[in-house]
Amino acid sequence: MTQRLRLGVLVEQRYLTQAQPLGMCEVLQGRGHRVTLIDPQSASFEMEDHSWLDGFDLIVSRGRSWALLGLLAWAESRGKPAINSRAAIAAVHNKAEMAAILAINKVRMPHTFLGPVAWLASQVPSAHYPLILKPILGDNCRGLRLVNTPKELRKVKWPEPVALAQCFLPSDGYDLKLYGIGDEIWVVRKPSPLRQHKGRAARHHQTPAELLPLTPELRDLGRRCGNLFGLEFYGVDCIQTANGPSVIEVNEFPNYTSVPEAGEKLAEYLIWRAQQGREQR
Asked: Is the peptide bond before 21 cis (omega within 30 degrees of 0)?
């Protein structure tokens, strides 16, 4: 018989209107487990008082704010198992770090450059345009800028000292999203969040997301990306090319759009991980 567990869920307010993590929390509560939601950006704590962590078997988080990462580091320093770990979230939050890890491990991805915008305009070959400019700590497509020529790039007023510039790969308007929970992978075809429109990255609205059959190549790619960053709940954004899938980026704890019974699968994995932690104590 499964013991009753207590789980702390660090979740930013913006995610409380989405399917996850609320779907997961409802399943956990329906199975008799105790779930405590904590909004890191509205809660306050005395740093010498660790009592807020008392009794939690596991901490799960959705978000990447400095407040959330701080509380997650606090929980881990007190020996609480966490999904995802602070280090894993931070690695994919920092797009330069993420791109470096993918490149070092020879994961297929678009040509990617890092540097001040003026340097990029003078050094990136014209053959690599159009480019998508990304903030180093970007989030949910915010701050992206599409540029078509070096001349256009030289005119960009970029708010940060450096940018990540990535070749904009042509597609049919759809991306592949590889959703991972541990080693289990699902493939979803989704309308691309970006399209070329008047020189900027814009929202793209098409038909709904569609679950696709899982191929060995996509299963292995999803697992590999999750393992590279130490992620347990994750998504991998891909573009299908003539040479195979190309990874655009990796994210922690996505919304699992179109994944069947996602709330149940997330809850089952959490229960398994929390029980593992109890047995090791």
From this structure: yes
Residue 260 CB coordination number (10 Å): 9
pLDDT in tens, 98-114: 999 999 999 999 999 99
Q: Which CATH class is domain 6-84+260-280?
A: alpha beta
Q: pTM for the complete prediction? A: 0.92
d(CA 255, CA 18): 7
Identify the segments of the chain with pLDDT beneath 70.
Answer: 1-2, 194-207, 277-281
**Whole-angstrom Cα Rg for the chain:** 20
Task: Detail the DSSP E strand segments found in 159-209.
Answer: 163-167, 174-181, 184-191, 195-197, 200-202
Q: Going by DSSP bridges, is the β-strand pair 210-212/184-191 parallel, antiparallel, or unpaired?
A: antiparallel
Sign of the C-alpha dihedral, residues 230, 75, 136, 141? positive
**Structure token digits, residue 132:** 């998508």
3-state secondary structure at position 233: strand
Fold classification of 92-108+170-252 (topology level):
D-amino Acid Aminotransferase; Chain A, domain 1 (3.30.470)
